[in-house]
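User: I'm writing a short methods note and want a consistent example. For Pyridoxal-phosphate dependent enzyme, I'll paste the sequence; you return only the structure tokens, no commentary, since I'll be parsing the reply automatically.
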Amino acid sequence: MPTFSLPSLENIREAHTAIQPFIHRTPVMSSSAINIMAGCSIFFKCENLQKVGAFKARGAANAVRKLSDSQKLKGVATHSSGNHAAALARAAQVAGIPAYIVMPKTAPEIKKAAVASYGGEIIECEPTQQAREEMLGKVVEKTGATFIHPYDFMDVIEGQATAALELIEDVEGLDVIITPVGGGGLLAGTLLTAGYMNPSLEVYAGEPQGADDAFRSLQTGERQPSLKPNTIADGLLTSLGEINFAIIQGRIKEIITVSDEEIKAAMKLILERMKIVIEPSSAVPLAAILKEKETFAGKNVGVILTGGNVDLGI
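Assistant:
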């Protein structure tokens, strides 16, 4: 069990104020057609419209602002399949410091292009967790850069917690919030914010069946590795973080797993009914709601649409 101090609600509010110049307060949208299909009232927090196209802008901005002057001189480094990579590259660019980004060769080209556009130096690796970590170690040893973990780092979790802060402030009477879960930074931050602001608010997560390590971790009570994940939701391929698991245990209501076909259907539904573009990972919570309608029936449900960086192939 890792040793750490949880950020307070005051800490989360302070982080929210500090990162305001670097993020959007994203809108909350709804669709009467989707509500009828789902049998509940859904409020979509549109982080697909966030800076860099994903909620990751929040955690990266918060982590970079907390660096010491000596750390800033040598820059930052991370490993990421995309959205955290772009978010950290942009946060580093704004701060005027270098960013070294280890990305799997299989990462979507649109996400590689985003990192490059923000001045991040991309170092490619094989698409496994071990390869990411080994390459990152070499980069940090060579550059002296500070490793900003994509999700298993309290400054990042604190930043991600600000998305739920805005959602709860903007929508009165929420009964449920549901997020996707990959590494767990957003879910952990959401659980903290919800627990502070409304302890009766239930928090769920959706997870792909082909990358269900968080689900298995809760079932067994021990963190399970994501060894060979296989899902269209490329943003959810990473293993659940150690800190994140410790926060999630005992706080989350349930993790609901969904198939890639269910994810595609939810993604298509949002595009058709709401006319907004989301990436597959963002569709996972809606897929979970549609799969388990009785769980959410008649409730006010907040959904965090985590990102919109998808290669449309057109």
